[in-house]
Amino acid sequence: MSYRQATYDEPLLREFKSGATYEIPGTVGDAGSMIPDALVRKDLNIQDVAEYDVVRHFTRLSQMNYGVDLGFYPLGSCTMKFNPKYADLISSMSQFRDSHPLADESLVQGNLRIMYELQEYLKAISDMDAVSLQPLAGAHGEFSGILIVRKYFQDRGELERRTEIIIPDSAHGTNPASAAMAGFDVVEVPSGKDGTVDVEALKGLVSEKTAAFMITNPNTLGIFEHNIGKIASIFHEKGALLYYDGANFNAIMGHTSPGLMGFDIVHFNLHKTFATPHGGGGPGSGPIAVKERLREYLPVPVVEKKGNEFHFNYSLKNTIGKVSSFHGSFGVLLRAWAYITGNGRDGLTENSSVAVLNTNYIAHKLSSVYGIPFKKQKMHELVISSASTGKRAMDIAKYVLDAGMHPPTVYFPLILKEAMMIEPTETVSRRDLDEYCRILIEGAGKDEEELHKHPTSTPVGRIDEVRAARDQKLNWRS
Ligand SMILES: *Cc1c(COP(=O)(O)O)cnc(C)c1O
User: Which of 22, 69, 159, 275 is geometrically suited to a Cys-Cys bond with 339, CB 3.0 to 4.6 A?
Assistant: First the structure.
């Protein structure tokens, strides 16, 4: 693709010749005098470009992108659902968008009310007792939650012996990362033949060293951990805590909850379950919820209501402190509030039902060609293996790209060979489900050489995966 060079024959732009440098007002003057001379930038050596070239450049880039507004996006584990436009509209209203994070509480009562109501909704959806909206992503919620585990045992004088967190081998990579970052040793528990935690193996791993168990339910294979009640008692009997990774909430809303399953700490991925366009790193929001005995440990501030007034409470007795600037991802909180009030209890419950139904529809259609491991009923996502077709998951994923659709997540979870993880969500038509299955089956039937030619229609062809992983350029100068 070629880009036309900017020309500078417009009268207003004529004096701004390409390559010229300009003094930037304000950097060397009064404000500049407060900055050490060595740090004051005297000129800015950037190329000047016409506005229309900048606009066209970014519009062109946006056209190379694929998103939920363009088509079906069944990226397993990510809950890429269509985001209703009313949620965007509300979060971009100037009354919200332009309010200042340092504004006096009396001036932003509406904002605080929405945050308070969202806390209440999340409590009700999860059957937990208290919520903090501070964390900025699922992984950030995990890290905050594990800091709570740490502080809780520190206060009880048990931290020295409680050094381990147990995590299933099917877990998302952020789980062991969060546990390790909070200073714990990670102990892996294997999955049994049916794809759920091997309870006998688990019993052998739990000891007085155990601080917590981290798990998502349904798990990353899309299977409900039916032994969760038993598992919770195993840990609680040893005085350990249970952490619920809420990334898979889309499967259970209104049907069951982490509170009912016996969990002590939970995070939500608002950008997955409760609508916000996400991908490519943001924006996200990962509120955490806890049971009563951990209420005072939550990150601050939390929003409280006295009479008809709302205010921030920064002084929880055992708080792990502040984990993000200001008040979390406010724009994402607004969308989640809009989505929850827009759907209502019945709507959210139905969304989960339809997400599960769509997944089982796909499982049924693909089972004639693909290996569908673990015979249990699928929840909101399923993992298939292309090994039974003799084709590589990567090759089939590239074939799907040329059909103008987004491929499944591939090679995750790590415990299954040639894994392809499909999460349709509730916002997909039967026509799209049928077409997707048709393409996956068609791809599996192509010969390998033919598959290696794909993709042909995307802006970027096959990349060197090994080099991308090993030879990273993390600095624009290198
Ligand atoms: C997405 C996901 C996470 C991490 O959440 P982020 O919001 O991406 O940080 C954790 N666990 C599971 C199972 C997930 O799917």
Answer: 275
